[in-house]
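Students often ask what a holo structure prediction actually looks like on paper. The answer is less mysterious than it sounds. You provide the chain, you provide the ligand, and the output is a string of discrete structure tokens encoding the 3D arrangement of the protein together with flavin-adenine dinucleotide.
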Amino acid sequence: MHPITNTLIVGAGPFGLGLAAYLQRRGYDYQLVGKPMEFWKEHMPQGMLLRSNANWYLDPDHKWTIDTFLRLHDPVRSPTAPISREQYIAYVDWFRQQARIPVVPAYVERLGYDTGLFTAELANGHTIQAQNVVVATGFEHFAYYPPELVALLPAGHFQHSCDAVTMSAYRNKRVLVIGGRQSAFESAALLREAGARHVHISYRHDTPRFEEADWSWVETIVEQMAGQPDWFSCLSTQQQQEYRHKLWAEGRLKLEPWLEKRINQPDVSLYPRTEVVWVNQQPDDSLRIGLNTGLHLDIDALILATGYQVNVARLPFLSDSIQTALKTQNGSPLLDHQFQSSITGLYFSSFAAGQSFGPFFGFTVGVRTAAQLIGQALVRTPV
Ligand SMILES: Cc1cc2nc3c(=O)[nH]c(=O)nc-3n(C[C@H](O)[C@H](O)[C@H](O)COP(=O)(O)OP(=O)(O)OC[C@H]3O[C@@H](n4cnc5c(N)ncnc54)[C@H](O)[C@@H]3O)c2cc1C
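The corresponding structure tokens follow.
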């Protein structure tokens, strides 16, 4: 027999760690399994700057904030400067140490459920049994590959932006980035700065404007949801759509102004309102890409900055019986007001919670509210 833990948290990214801090402070029995900040370390480009600011810290008890960390570790930094990926990873590392959060640095390979108990088989050969499980696996399994585009591309000749993170690998190459939002433009800037020969960006819409995104309204909403968790689910479908659109527009119709100079360069070409219509593989293994405008581009590498879409059917570790029992809508689990799914004791936070709690929960602004709501539910549940 294996010892039974009250709660297993799967995923040691911002959401998993924020919840762990809440439980740790309250002496609650839990185990956190996952490689700390693996998605940020392995699937976000080196040199990336965050769009979010220091208000989006992880500590639900407000002690270990990003501001405190930066004051201690980088006292000369301008408070208005964007936070880099490297600074953010260092902050989360420091936060984890301050909160004394123990982590089992492994992957859950299979999660099963039988008569009120979950069993997790880990890649390191160990097994954990738990009364509750919180899935906090974030973006990891949800990279979106547009099927109509992938159908045109020869296998092995493209990468999703989550796998194109070491920009020096593209030195001297002609690269086409497909996608026209912040991630596509920032990848293009980083590629150029790392020595790519030429970077092309093709996207189906107009070029977004360079203007700082305003997230302050999002912070207010998410904070008040800690006291009113059913706020989003009680909105009419039309109101929910309006909030989704508002957030989408804030993030997608704007590009951060610090990208403008880095993109307006002779070796970066923009192709707004274009689509790839044909692809020919050349004898030297390069690709000739035809756009719907009649133009063609000769390139050595292709990056799909085509975003992410929640689809829990793609979570490889959930057993068939969990997948079958889980009630979903548009690929997202349906959750109650405490982030609990249709399976008692199984919770989902972060990106996967967006259908029930609003799209804000795909960003770290939601970490503290999710930690409080899930944490309160767990602490209240009799064990
Ligand atoms: C290019 C890019 C830029 C972004 N910029 C920002 C930004 O500026 N600000 C912001 O707030 N958000 C940003 N985001 C969104 C950001 O990724 C999320 O807000 C945040 O990472 C969500 O945290 P999380 O803990 O849910 O998931 P993640 O950070 O994705 O962490 C989940 C963890 O789960 C682990 N995991 C997966 N499967 C298993 C398993 N089977 N067993 C154990 N562990 C597992 C993974 O290793 C991963 O480390 C950005 C996203 C992208 C792609």
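Residues 10-16, 33-35, 37-40, 44, 50-52, 56, 107-108, 136-140, 183, 317, 350-351, 363-364 surround flavin-adenine dinucleotide (CB under 6 Å).
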